[in-house]
Specification:
This protein has about 400 residues and is of the alpha+beta class. It is about 30% helix and about 20% strand. The chain has a six-stranded antiparallel sheet. Bound molecules: flavin-adenine dinucleotide.
């Protein structure tokens, strides 16, 4: 297999050496996989030829963007890893229709740095990993924006080029099928995404109170057109952030006169403090960060559950995406959280993907739909085995 792939990608662009494979044994999930080969293709044609070969030999393939998946989406045993990092070119900028066409490994920061002089941007910007997360990875996971009005990555996709599990290259008419499919149906090799004029947060305010008081404020904030984002921090997270021992909301506004913090340097200082919460929690042994979507009607019950079980919780309250945190000694809480989200008519992962870590909680209807699509696009079942299904 290695020699055949070398014929396609050239010497030095495929490896089975232990030291090269080491990095692909992990992603950001803390889980492990043991791949057999890694290849670094540079073109769609190379990927198509590799997929044809893999299909012929029933050799499993896992696509990797930057490997920041927190759900183990890029890990598996005895597979070929397709590392897309050489496919990192911005191909076309169309300022008439406000779109950009990119290769999959272009990062969000890379494209937005390029676009900054045109006063447009790609608005799905992860809080912490914009410089690393690839646009291919973000679309494959259908990442939500922390700013609810921007929706999810899929809302910005105009067209895709895909290589499926048989090596066929095409521009799917059923684009949504490939969005959020976490690399189990095909490799996204090119994307055209819409752009929008950035809305900057110009001011922000802290609000403190009991969870019930903060939830009652949410109703007003959600209908306020000037509100950009509403973040929730329970008492534990507020303390870690140095805010005192009461739960807090952080609200950002598009207008300078709406929030209490108007000085831009101070606003950035708050934003970067919030971005550190993930690692502060990890340092405090809160290692598992769940991310269910909880509808607003069920939010009070969800927060009560976290408080009763002493699980720190923070999240994008306006979007209903909550990170309840669990110590690794008590993984059983993950099951309870996902079951509760289901009971409250939510979804197991609102943000970071299902991957391998949370696949047992994938709702039945989604499983059936993906299984049917997989039979069509990946009949040999070689694409990202063990992920999602
Ligand atoms: C500190 C931290 C913060 C994070 N914050 C957020 C957040 O705020 N919001 C959020 O939604 N997520 C967040 N994530 C997780 C999120 O999964 C990634 O940041 C991002 O979506 C994945 O980008 P990536 O390029 O690293 O993809 P990878 O991790 O490499 O891949 C993710 C999945 O997509 C598949 N894939 C990747 N590229 C392609 C492609 N071209 N074609 C087909 N399949 C592909 C992979 O097989 C895998 O299943 C965070 C992760 C960390 C570690």
């Amino acid at each position: 297999m290695k020699e055949k792939i070398e014929d396609i990608v050239g010497a030095g662009n495929v490896s089975d050496k232990e030291q090269d494979l080491l990095v692909y044994q992990r992603d950001s999930s803390g889980l492990e996989g043991h791949p057999r080969l890694v290849a670094w293709p540079a073109t769609t044609d190379e990927i198509a030829r590799i997929m044809k070969l893999a299909n012929l030999r029933s050799f499993p393939v896992v696509v990797r963007g930057s490997g920041t998946s927190v759900a183990g989406g890029t890990l598996a045993d005895d597979v070929l890893i397709l590392d897309l990092s050489r496919m990192n070119k911005v191909l076309r900028l169309n300022m008439t229709e406000h779109s950009v066409t990119v290769q999959p490994a272009v990062t969000v920061r890379q494209v937005n740095t390029l676009l900054s002089s045109y006063d447009v941007h790609f608005p799905i910007i992860p809080h912490t990993f914009a410089g690393v997360s690839t646009i291919g990875g973000i679309v494959s996971r259908n990442m939500p924006s922390p700013v609810p009005r921007y929706g999810r990555a899929g809302d910005w996709v105009m067209s895709l080029e895909v290589v499926d599990g048989t090596g066929k290259v095409f521009n799917p008419s059923k684009v949504p099928l490939f969005i959020g499919s976490e690399g189990i149906l095909g490799v996204i090799t090119q994307l055209t995404v819409k752009l929008v004029k950035p809305i900057a947060s110009l001011s922000g305010s802290w609000k403190e109170g009991t969870p019930e008081e903060l939830l009652s404020l949410l109703g007003e904030l959600k209908v306020d057109q000037d509100v950009v984002t509403v973040e929730f921090f329970d008492a534990y997270c507020s303390q870690l952030l140095g805010l005192g021992d009461k739960p807090h909301l952080w609200v950002e506004y598009v207008f300078l006169d709406k929030g209490d913090i108007k000085e831009q340097q101070e606003l950035y200082a708050v934003q970067s403090r919030l971005a550190r919460l993930f690692s502060l929690l990890k340092q405090n042994k809160q290692t598992i960060h769940t991310d269910p979507f909880v509808p607003v009607e069920g939010m009070a019950e969800f927060l009560r559950f976290c408080r009763k079980n002493e699980l720190p919780v923070y999240g994008h309250l306006a979007a209903g995406i909550m990170h309840a945190c669990i110590r690794k000694e008590h993984p059983e809480y993950a099951k309870r959280i996902y079951k509760l989200a289901q009971k409250l008519h939510g979804y197991p992962s609102g943000e970071c993907g299902i991957g391998r870590a949370w696949k047992e909680y994938l709702p039945h209807a989604a499983k059936e739909e993906l299984t049917a699509s997989k039979k069509f696009y990946d009949p040999s079942g070689i694409m990202n085995p063990g992920c999602l299904l």
